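Escalated from tier 1: beta-D-glucopyranose holo job.
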Amino acid sequence: MDALVVEPGVAHSARVERVSPPREDGVRVRVLEIGICGTDREVSEGVFGAAPDGEATLVLGHELLGRVDDDGHGFFRGDLVTATVRRSCGRCVACAEGSPDACLTGNYSERGITRLHGFAREAVVEDPVQLIPVPRELGRLGVLAEPASVCARAIRHARAIGGRQPWRLERALVIGGGAVGMLATIFLRLAGIDVTTASLEPANAVADRVGARYVCTAATPLAELGRFDLVLEAAGNAQAMAATLGLLRRGGVACLLGIDPRRQQVAVDGQTLGVDTILENRVLFGSVNAHRQDYLAAVTDLTRAWTAWPGALDLLVALRVPLDRFADAFAHRGGKATLVLDEL
Ligand code: BGC
Ligand code: ZN
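Tier 2 regenerated the structure:
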């Protein structure tokens, strides 16, 4: 069967290739659609990722929407599913407790990213424990489950960190208008929070639909927006990340989600760091990946959003192409691109 493979460490090595069909034990899943994100672009540019031990190529794809092929393991033929990305290192307490998202050794594997083949192929066999049911009504929007799980984790952690002391999450700022920024905007709006979403684009239809205030950062500097209980950086700009500390209210929490791999120095205002962060109990933290509970929360919230704001989630997927047009999906900017492998 066809798969999208890459030679990790080798730029421009992504190609569609025949691979042998999966023979492992588990649930056989037909792949319907694969979301593409910045991580896939980094792997295809050769700057990130690793092949399984002893192999030269890695099957890409970690944002899965699939359909179960046969009854069994608590699933029924036709069920829509997604799957977790990160798998246990087998050696730390976090992984032993079922939280590889908090792995303490860094020796975890990740589907389609590090040492485990991904989902960008016609069919996969998956461990039933790693599968997450996707509600039927979400249909193709189920492809957003994985990036949504990353947002659900970030917000869950922000609430835990903010909530270590008396705190109310009333005003949030989301920096970045990509899929993660918009899914975070949507989830915060579902929770009734006053959300401002800021990015470079002149306008943002999703923000308007879900009742978030949209700000174009080319016209309005972030420092003019007032201060926030939560700032979520999903633009992947290290300078903007450093500046989030200065955008927080007392007890405020800033969460970094977007990767910025550039080698550079960024500036932090001395008094913001050396005085305000301390005197106002502010926190800056990073979050990656997601726990199973975050996937479950994500599909629940996606379904709620689908009902609350018809058509809003559809705006997040901007380009759907077949597997052999993966280059178009990688080149696409503005909205999520996906690879479509089969009919719903
Ligand atoms: C994925 C995460 C993964 C991270 C780092 C992201 O694109 O959504 O699941 O942990 O990349 O590899
Ligand atoms: Zn991703």
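The first helix runs from residue 38 to 44.
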